[in-house]
From TrEMBL:
Cofactor(s) in the UniProt record: Ca(2+)
The keyword Iron belongs to this UniProt entry's keyword annotation: no
Protein's name according to its UniProt entry: Aldose 1-epimerase
Keyword entries, A-Z: Calcium
């Protein structure tokens, strides 16, 4: 467990997963073991969305890749590269064609192993500041590699009627619940505020969109994404790819209201 701290703020990171962000005694992050989701955050890469209806195949310039929901990155462990009292850098490396065990098999998937036809390195870094927590992502690898990226943090809810503010409009928890597993799309948006017992704003660079998901009332996932996967049929998921040019960088800032 890596712990970052400054003043009355504490961040806990478990093998690259943000499992705690406590500010002045208020916990913003969904806690493992609580109803709703077994994780606290994760990344969706190199695809976002389900592929079960496409026989778990995704089209790439190098042929079809075997992927499961939200890609294979989450099936690979992070390594810690560097840490200080207020920062930490984690990374994952993947060699093209390497089979990765699929944790969804056999209960939720027919695919025992996943693979991707490109090499890549994925870096996730945390920087704790007095006014917020920065989370940086850097993707590097083969020139022209297709990919999508989504960040999937879960926020703990403390009140009965939290509100999500996006693009000048209010989104209720009931609206998110009503959409179900597809997740509520918030297109062309770089900043969302969650108004609960305390208020926190999620600011982004590089993603351009969000989707919001929950199936319970004690947490909500507010997810920066490069592409909303339900905009196309699963067999056409490749239409949401962008292409890697050397490296690509993305940023998320969690900014609690003082």
């Amino acid at each position: 467990m890596v712990t970052l701290s400054t003043n009355n703020t504490f961040v806990k990171i478990d093998k690259g997963e943000l499992v705690g962000y406590e500010v002045n005694g208020h916990q913003f992050i969904h806690q493992k073991g609580s109803p709703g989701w077994g994780s606290a955050d994760t990344e969706m890469f190199p695809i976002i969305g389900p592929v079960n209806e496409a026989d778990f195949r995704v089209k790439t310039p190098k042929g079809e890749a075997i992927q499961d929901q939200h890609g294979l990155l989450r099936q690979i462990d992070y390594d810690l590269e560097h840490q200080t009292g207020t920062s930490a850098v984690f990374f994952k490396e993947y060699a093209a064609g390497t089979e990765v065990s699929n944790s969804k098999f056999p209960e939720k998937s027919t695919e025992e192993a996943l693979s991707w036809p490109y090499d890549f390195r994925f870096e996730k870094s945390f920087l704790l500041m007095d006014d917020g927590l920065e989370i940086h992502f850097k993707v590097s690898g083969e020139e022209g590699m297709p990919f999508m990226l989504g960040y999937h943090p879960a926020f703990k809810l403390h009140s009965k009627s939290p509100v999500i503010l996006a693009k000048g409009k209010e989104i209720s928890l009931d609206e998110v619940l009503a959409v179900g597993s597809r997740a509520l799309q918030v297109a062309n948006c770089t900043s969302i505020t969650l108004k609960d017992e305390k208020e926190i704003t999620i600011e982004t660079e590089g993603f351009g969109n969000f989707m919001c998901w929950t199936e319970v009332r004690n947490m909500v996932c507010i997810e920066p994404i490069t592409f909303y996967p339900y905009a196309v049929e699963q067999s056409n998921l490749h239409q949401g790819f962008q292409k890697l040019k050397g490296s690509s960088e993305f940023k998320v800032v969690l900014r609690p209201k003082a």
